[in-house]
Write a structure and sequence with these properties.
Mean pLDDT of chain A: 89
Mean pLDDT of chain B: 88
Number of helices of chain A: 2
Strand order of the largest sheet of chain B: 1-7-6-2-3
Number of helices of chain B: 12
Largest sheet of chain A: 16 strands, antiparallel, barrel
Shape of chain A: globular
Largest sheet of chain B: 5 strands, parallel
Structural class of chain A: mainly beta
Distance between the termini of chain B: 66 Å
Order of helices and strands of chain A: HEEEEEEHEEEEEEEEEEEEE
Strand content of chain A: over 45%
Low-confidence stretches of chain B: 1-5, 12-17, 406-421
Distance between the termini of chain A: 40 Å
Oligomer: heterodimer
Helix content of chain A: under 10%
Number of strands of chain A: 19
Strand order of the largest sheet of chain A: 2-3-4-5-6-7-8-9-10-11-12-13-14-15-16-19
Largest interface: A-B, 46 and 36 residues
Number of strands of chain B: 15
Helix content of chain B: 25-40%
Structural class of chain B: alpha/beta
Low-confidence stretches of chain A: 1-25
């Protein structure tokens, strides 16, 4: 009979071997310049997923769907020259992520390669940073949390804003004041891509303003984290607003009534480690996206509706990191209401999920698993402004993910 | 072993974490609930009425507001007036702006169960052609009008037809007293025929995934099953919620479907040159004599060809908003399903309900000819065979796919609604 101590020893040896092995895979870093004032580092960031959903394929899409995909698959080039200037360039390669937020794609999306980030950063002082290029805009804390450091398996599926994804092009000014207790941010970004098409009333810039107050340890970086794994005691309150004027027509038929987009959010983040007890993390946010009710017209711009269109909602997530082993349990609840989602007006979505993170080597090697339920206020199959025969029904999703950073 | 102070620290931490979590949850969840948004299609804001029976003053107001035949591309409250009558009656005068809805277009000859029947609703392409010709779309409120001197049969049957094809109740109105009510209110008729903007609308746009409107119509299989359930005790007439069956033909008839309440469509309005629906209190009182109340789970209405019964259909669906189904086959179909016509055993109405000594039909069934569809008669051996509800199957297929043939299973007789009384 194998004793408990024997098993512990075997697991410890196995984990130790794994940690040593992965530690040997650290990304390359080089210096250059006459006084070695330039540095350049290359990182790989991969998140490989296995997804199972109880609908989405077969007749009427009623059968289970299983999918392997790269949720994230990135090469990041980080460089600095002197104390002021640095660059961050990141590529993204995804392949066949067919299981999406609300449905399963009816055609293979194939592979996609893009330049996700390309930003030059200037740090003139702690209170004055300037970012120029393509990078994350300053609205929600959730979007600003690093993709590799979420508390739950991934970030909110519903919090994105219209006409841009998670990054935009432009310039941002930000900094920390009062011993990093307060952080301010402001940006001027592209927003909806400027086109000569009549579909867009006017190609204006999008503006954001954001601030936060750190009541315990400061969060002084441009990006947040979903968990600091107990390395900080954090209590941060934040708020932001974003606006782009003349972003869409209320009525595409008559090209009448241009409307602007306005989004605002409030958020909080608490993480508190206690030695011997573990680390508790709680975070939440409210977000509102508005187009002045343009969705109510007969033929509105498609962008004012749907997942990223007019909506409001909130999420709360919580986690607990055990003290003696790198296991973190987490849960997330989201409640959203959309002006129109899959041809259904005033649709409400409740999302509930829970799972675990096991940190083999911090965030550098992490295994996550999550079970979630997506429930709709109204279900059925409807045709309309957003397409023909769009079916809405509740579903469950299981996702397993391995994350590797090196 | 942990010391007491360590336990206290842990307990304090866990307690604090719980409080913080609770505060955080409440802050995110309760401080502001997600905004509720308006469904602009679910509520007609300017043509909403308490019931589907409107008076002349209301229609006149809509006319004055420019809603009738409004061609503005972004309107959600366009009004189309349909005078449901003959071409000759329409030509003698009609409400200004109203279009002709030929009363002969309310029926179609279609295969239903074992034989073709002439009192069935028009099929999808026929409906679409008409809707497009008079410019009806999903944002149209339709007002059905009876010609001067006519009763409510035609507008009520038109109301049923539109309900069958999925139009939401609030989009359909019947004008109280018809043209007589209009002129009685001091407004004039015209002989001018309006020029209407055609639409591209299709009933397919109203497909809701189930074809809920088709449940407004009861096929003969469902009716035989209903009678059997009432006869064999599966449904108890003493139960206030029990489905009721009302025969609206009026007068004295040689036979009735068993368990029918012998009603008269004429009793729901003051008949004459100025037919007017009676006050709701009078309607409720009459229905109560047949044990039809707001608790009644379903009322089946029938007559000779599904026209007279449509008056009570409108009363129940449009005025009282109680559940109702129209058996549009009515006695014209029922009386033909007899042994002498070679009808398959399960479908014969001149027999007793299986397992009972109670007849499916009360009285002596008059001789009624029937040209059987031999294939249907051979293969449909049970009254609840879903394939035998060909009309609902075909119309559901058209509405969901645009196909005009096929159908197969899936229609259903709706017998489930009568179970477990």
């Amino acid at each position: 009979m194998i004793g408990t101590s024997t098993i512990r020893t075997a697991v410890a040896i196995a984990l130790g071997s794994l940690l040593l092995a992965t530690a040997a895979l650290a990304g390359p870093e080089m210096t250059f310049g006459p006084e070695n004032q330039g540095t350049l580092r290359v990182d790989y960031k991969g998140q490989f997923q296995a997804v199972a959903r109880d609908i989405g394929s077969g007749i009427n899409n009623d059968d289970h769907t299983y999918n392997f995909n790269f949720r994230r698959n990135r090469l990041a080039l980080m460089g600095a020259y002197g104390d002021i200037m640095s660059v961050y360039v990141q590529t993204e390669f995804t392949q066949d992520p067919t299981v999406t937020t609300l449905s399963v794609a009816d055609a293979a999306p194939g592979s996609n390669f893009q330049l996700l980030d390309a930003v030059v950063r200037f740090r003139f002082a702690d209170a004055l940073h300037v970012n120029v290029g393509k990078f994350k805009y300053n609205l929600t804390r959730e979007n600003l949390e690093a993709c590799e450091n979420p508390l739950t398996l991934d970030r909110s599926l519903f919090i994105r804003v219209p006409y841009v994804a998670t990054r935009d092009m432009g310039v941002a000014v930000w900094g920390n004041v009062l011993q990093d207790r307060i952080q301010y941010r402001g940006d001027m970004m592209e927003g909806r891509t400027a086109l000569s098409s009549v579909a867009e009333p006017k190609a204006d810039f999008r503006f954001s303003a954001r601030g936060h107050v750190s009541l315990l340890d400061p969060e002084s970086e441009y990006g947040y984290k979903g968990t600091y794994l107990g390395k900080k005691k954090v209590f941060t309150l934040g708020a932001a607003v974003q606006h782009e004027p003349n972003v869409a027509y209320s009525n595409l038929t008559t090209l009448a009534k241009p409307v602007g987009y306005t989004g605002w959010t409030t958020d909080y983040f608490i993480e508190y480690p206690v030695e011997g007890v573990g680390t508790a993390t709680v975070s939440g946010a409210y977000e509102d996206v508005s187009f002045d009710d343009a969705y109510q017209t007969l033929n509105p711009d498609p962008g004012v509706m749907g997942l990223d269109g007019q909506k409001s909602g909130w999420y709360v997530k919580a986690g607990y990191l055990l003290p003696q082993m790198p296991l973190q349990v987490f849960g997330r609840y989201e409640k959203w209401r959309f002006a129109m989602l899959q041809n259904i007006y005033n649709q409400r979505v409740d999302w509930l999920g829970g799972g675990v993170n096991y940190y083999f080597r911090g965030q550098d090697l992490k295994l996550s698993a999550e079970v979630s339920n997506t429930a709709f206020d109204k279900t059925g199959t409807f045709s309309g402004l957003q397409g023909e025969n769009l079916r809405t029904r509740d579903f469950n999703t299981f996702t397993a993910q391995i994350q590797v950073l090196f | 072993m942990l010391r007491t102070s360590q336990w206290n620290t842990k307990a304090a931490f866990i307690g604090l974490a719980g409080v913080v979590a609770a505060l955080a949850l409440s802050a995110a969840g309760c401080a502001k609930n997600p905004t509720s948004y308006v469904d602009p299609t679910s509520s007609i804001t300017t043509t909403r009425t308490a019931t589907n029976l409107i008076d002349a003053a209301t229609l006149r107001a809509w006319m004055n507001e420019g809603k009738v035949n409004n061609n503005a591309p972004d309107t959600r409250d366009r009004v189309v007036i349909l005078t449901v009558t003959t071409a000759a009656a329409y030509a003698t005068g009609h409400i200004p702006g109203s279009a002709l809805y030929l009363s002969s277009d309310l029926n179609a000859s279609r295969l239903e169960a074992l034989a073709t029947l002439s009192s069935e609703p028009p099929d999808g392409p026929t409906m679409d052609a008409f809707l497009q010709r008079v410019g009806i779309d999903e944002h149209t409120t339709v007002v059905f009008v009876a010609s001067a001197g006519q009763n409510f049969i035609n507008p009520s049957r038109a109301y049923y037809t539109f309900r069958y094809w999925g139009f939401p109740r609030e989009r359909l109105k019947v004008l109280q007293s018809g043209e007589a009510g209009w002129t009685g209110a001091g407004y004039s008729l015209t002989t001018a025929v309006p020029t209407l903007r055609a639409s591209t609308f299709s009933v397919r746009s109203q497909w809701d995934g189930t074809g809920a409107g088709f449940s407004m119509r009861a096929p003969i299989g469902e009716m035989i099953d209903l009678v059997d359930r009432l006869n064999n005790g599966a449904l108890s007439a003493s139960d206030p919620s029990c489905p009721r069956l009302l025969d609206e033909r009026g007068g004295t008839n040689a036979s009735y479907m068993a368990n029918s309440g012998i009603d008269d469509y004429n009793q729901y309005y003051v008949s004459g040159a100025n037919s007017t629906f009676k006050p709701t209190s009078d309607i409720l009182a009459r229905l109560a004599t047949f044990n039809v109340t707001s608790s009644t789970r379903m009322t089946y209405v029938t007559c000779a060809s599904g026209h007279r019964a449509s008056v009570l259909f409108f009363v129940l669906d449009g005025i009282l908003r109680w559940p109702v189904r129209l058996y549009d086959g009515s006695s014209g179909q029922w009386n033909g399903y007899v042994t002498a016509n070679g009808v398959g055993t399960a479908w014969r109405v001149d027999t007793n309900t299986p397992g009972t000594s109670l007849a499916r039909t009360t009285g002596t069934i008059p001789t009624t000819s029937l040209v059987l569809d031999p294939v249907s008669n051979a293969i449909y051996t049970t009254v609840l065979d879903r394939r035998a509800n060909q009309i609902a199957n075909e119309d559901r297929t058209y509405m969901s796919t645009g196909q005009t043939s096929g159908g197969g299973g899936g229609g259903g007789g709706g017998g489930g609604s009568t179970s477990g009384c």
